[in-house]
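Form P-L/3: holo structure prediction, ligand ISJ.
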Amino acid sequence: MNDVVARAAELLADHRESIDRLDAILIYTLGERFKHTQQVGQLKAEHDLPPSDPDREAVQIARLEDLARRADLDPDFAKKFLAFIIEEVIQHHKKISGEQ
Ligand SMILES: C=C(O[C@@H]1C=C(C(=O)O)C=C[C@H]1O)C(=O)O
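OUTPUT (holo model):
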C-alpha cells in the first residue's frame, strides 16, 4: 500500500469511528425521547386526550427547520425525520389508549 492509499484508509477509519459514535448518540437520544413520549402517552390515556397534537407538531416542525438551517442540515430532511418519529409515537399512544 502506498502512502496516499494508507492515508486515505486512515481517514476513512477516523470518519467511520466518528459516525459510529454519533450513531450511538442518536440511538441513546431516541431511547430517552421515547421514554418521555411514553409518559406523555400514559397521561393522555389517563385524561382522555387525543394521541396526536397537530398544533404542537407544527411548532416543533418550525423549530426543527430553524435548528436544521443553523446546523447545516437540510430542513426538509429534518422535517421528514421528525414526522417519521412522531408517527411512531402516535402509534404508541394509540396502543396505550387501547385505540389500536
Ligand atoms: C408527545 C406528544 O404526542 C404526539 C407526539 C409528538 C412527538 O413525538 O413529539 C408531538 C405531538 C403529538 O402529536 C405530545 O403531545 O407532546
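COMMENT: Helices lie at 3-46, 54-70, 75-97.
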